[in-house]
Amino acid sequence: GNCKRKDVMPRLWVHESMRVFHDRLISIEDKDSYKKMCSELVKKNFPGAPDYDELFVSRNIIFGDFMVMGLDLEERVYEEVLDMSKMIRIMEEYLEEYNFSSTNAMNLVFFMDAAEHTTRIARILRQPRGNAMLVGVG
User: Fold this and answer.
1) For residue range 80-99, what is the model confidence (pLDDT) as tens digits?
2) What is the C-alpha to C-alpha distance for residues 19 and 120, in angstroms, rounded to an integer?
3) Cα–Cα distance between 51 and 23 in angstroms, integer?
């Protein structure tokens, strides 16, 4: 793929580095330190890039290739998700499609945290030999 706009590149870099490093951290202190370091690297390497608040406070930076339904894998575009409510609606449509075609229907609620985790899982599963171990309480 290619990044057609200069202003998207710092956010794409932040998103990918967060998925590779930040998602593996456990403590809040480590996660906060990583965000601070990431913001400093963006400021240093991307002139005119967003600051810490623009990267981590005022918005969620999410990229994915699932925003247009019905496309083959080769046709999908890895793009920034700008409308979170649209993203959740699309996830609900995917779930409805799954439930229609499966004998094991899932009743899920895509609140923001669950939707963010779903985007992470989708990113992992799209990679060659992608796999993840999900651990939760419940």
Assistant:
1) 999 999 999 999 999 999 99
2) 7
3) 21
